[in-house]
Amino acid sequence: MTTWVGTSWKMNFSLAQARDYATGLAAALAERPELTSGMQPFVIPPFTALTTVRDALGAAGGPGGVLLGAQNAHWEDAGAWTGEVSVPQVADAGARLVEIGHSERRQHFAETVERTRLKVRATLRHGLVPLLCVGEPAEVRDDGGSTEYILDQARGALEGLEGAPLGDVLLAYEPIWAIGEHGRPATEDELAEPMAALQAEYGGRVRAVLYGGSVSTDNAGPLLGVPGVDGLFVGRTAWNLEGYLRLLEIAAS
After folding, report:
1. Which Pfam families match (predicted)?
2. What would the pLDDT profile of 15-61 be if each residue is shown by its tens digit?
3. Are 45 and 83 a contacting pair, CB within 8 Å?
4. Percent of the chain beyond pLDDT 90?
């Protein structure tokens, strides 16, 4: 089984910072091939840094190496969509993965379930990997509705997909209460039910089911040991190259 470990840089990193990170990552992986054995690393920089990171990764971005992702993409291939970027455009810049439905997109940019469905299909249509994020707010968790909430998000976005198209999808469970600067780490017990539900519905049918939310070098090992967790989608800990390499070490071990 492939273990996925990746990070989104969100709205951070200058071109120089992105280049330094990617160059250092490529060099480290060339020296330590065990960090990619049975692993699939991925990084998702801001749009402005896609080509910079692609070029800096070089051979590390090839088969078996680091997968490059985009943080969003529009569902139309072209047109009068000021400020938007299409799937063909991010693919042309080197992206092979598109993040879809992050809670920040849903909350601040009106990313509805219908729009996530359109984006998943556009990503698949162009041969890229959709990384679909699902997750519930604290009040839903407190009311015991986590499983129903995240399954509704996943089913809505993946409606009608079967076989090979569905098999190209990545799912990331990112509870809203666990992500961001003020999130708190989820316990292994808290992850048991939602991860089991996602695996029961999609296990063996999608590429992998990941967990994201306050992942650190301290809790990465235990989180990877939770049944149903096929990998980690990491924020701040992986914005530092040393932190990301340490997470790869933990996952590889």
Report:
1. TIM
2. 999 999 999 999 999 999 999 999 999 999 999 999 999 999 987 77
3. no
4. 94
Concatenated DSSP letters for 172-222? EE--GGGSSTT--PPPHHHHHHHHHHHHHHHTTTSSEEEE-SS--TTTHHH
User: 3-8 and 97-100 as β-strands: parallel, antiparallel, unpaired?
Assistant: unpaired
Residues 168 and 122: their CA atoms lie apart, in Å, by: 13
The dihedral through the CA atoms of 152, 9, 45, 216 has a sign that is: negative
**At 44, which helix (H) or strand (E)?**
strand 39-44
Active site residues: 102, 174
Name residues whose C-beta falls within 8 Å of residue 131's C-beta, 6 or more positions apart in sequence.
44, 69, 97, 98, 99, 100, 170, 172, 233
Q: Residue 81 corresponds to which tokens in the numbers above? A: 């969509």
Instruction: Report the alpha-carbon angle 245-239-105, nearest 5.
Output: 130
Which domains does the chain carry?
3-252 (3.20.20.70)
Task: Say if CB 211 and CB 191 are below 8 A apart.
Answer: yes
Beta strand 129-134 with 67-70: parallel, antiparallel or unpaired? unpaired
Q: How far apart are CA 209 and CA 58, in angstroms?
A: 28
Closest CA to 220 of 228, 133, 229, 197: 229
The pLDDT assigned to 223 comes to: 97
What are the helix (H) ranges across the chain?
A: 15-31, 50-57, 87-92, 103-108, 113-125, 138-142, 146-158, 163-167, 188-202, 220-224, 241-252
